[in-house]
């Protein structure tokens, strides 16, 4: 089947099996390698992308679900000011990121801040529930998101709120 969708702001179309994994489509057909192949069962978060404003494990998204939707991968998100806010916030909080997990952590934070610009600590912690990383304490991740939220607010309004 042919599937049309918006990928990092561009209209795209691809011929694929209806049940093909979005993760494989992104990596093989579009050479977008930021989403990684890990558990392939929705438990590690290294394959996260943003689908219609929600972060999802692309390993569990079949191609037919993508039709007429909007996908943002880390490659697209990296072009935004929001990406810089999060990278800076993570750095301030000492969040560990490796090349394996960074896209999932950053996109999880990005989707949260888009939905809730001033999240509580509990909401920040919950945003990372689907990410498996033993290198960073969950508390540090939450601190990183709260720092990013402050930076984002200052960028918008010239001050923290
Ligand atoms: S590879 Fe998709 S959640 Fe682990
Ligand atoms: S898996 Fe990347 S820092 Fe832990």
Can you walk through the features of this model?
The chain has 161 residues and is an alpha+beta fold. It has 2 domains: 2-73, Roll (Ubiquitin-like (UB roll)); 81-157, Orthogonal Bundle (DNA polymerase, domain 1), CATH 1.10.150. It has helices at residues 22-29, 63-66, 74-77, 81-93, 102-115, 121-127, 138-157; strands at residues 2-7, 10-15, 48-51, 54-57, 70-72. It has a 5-stranded mixed beta sheet. A hairpin with a 2-residue loop joins strand 3 and strand 4 (54-57). Helix 4 (81-93) crosses helix 5. The radius of gyration is 16 Å and the shape is globular. The protein starts with a strand and ends with a helix. The model has no long low-confidence stretch (mean pLDDT 95). One FE2/S2 (inorganic) cluster binds next to loops.
Which molecules are bound in this entry? FE2/S2 (inorganic) cluster
Find the CATH topology of the largest domain: DNA polymerase, domain 1
The poorly predicted ranges are none
Category by helix and strand content: alpha+beta
Instruction: Please name the fourth-level CATH homologous superfamily of the largest domain.
Output: [2Fe-2S]-binding domain
Please identify, by name, the CATH architecture of the largest domain: Orthogonal Bundle
User: β content, as a range?
Assistant: 5-15%
The CATH C-level name of the largest domain is Mainly Alpha
| Whole-number mean pLDDT | 95
What is the element string, with H for helices and E for strands? EEHEEHEHHHHH
How many strands, what sense, and barrel or not for the largest sheet? 5 strands, mixed
Q: Helical element count?
A: 7
Instruction: Write down the overall geometry.
Output: globular
For the record, give the distance between the C-alpha atoms at the N and C termini, rounded to a whole number: 48 Å
Q: In what order do the strands lie side by side in the largest sheet?
A: 2-1-5-3-4
According to DSSP, the number of beta strands is 5
Helix content: 40-55%
Number of separate structural domains: 2
Radius of gyration: 16 Å
């Amino acid at each position: 089947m042919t599937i049309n969708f918006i990928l990092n702001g561009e209209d795209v179309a691809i011929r694929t099996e209806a049940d093909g994994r979005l993760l494989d489509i992104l990596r093989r057909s579009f050479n977008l390698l930021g989403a990684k192949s890990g558990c392939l069962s929705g438990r590690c978060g290294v394959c996260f992308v943003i689908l219609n404003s929600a972060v999802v494990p692309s390993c569990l998204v079949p191609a037919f679900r993508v039709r007429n939707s909007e996908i943002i991968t880390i490659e697209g998100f990296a072009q935004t000011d929001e990406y810089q806010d999060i990278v800076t916030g993570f750095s301030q909080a000492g969040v560990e990121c490796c090349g394996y997990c960074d896209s999932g952590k950053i996109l999880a934070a990005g989707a949260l801040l888009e939905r809730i610009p001033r999240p509580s600590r509990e909401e920040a912690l919950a945003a990372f529930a689907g990410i498996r990383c033993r290198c960073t304490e969950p508390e540090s991740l939450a601190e990183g998101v709260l720092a990013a939220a402050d930076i984002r607010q200052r960028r918008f309004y010239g001050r923290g709120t």
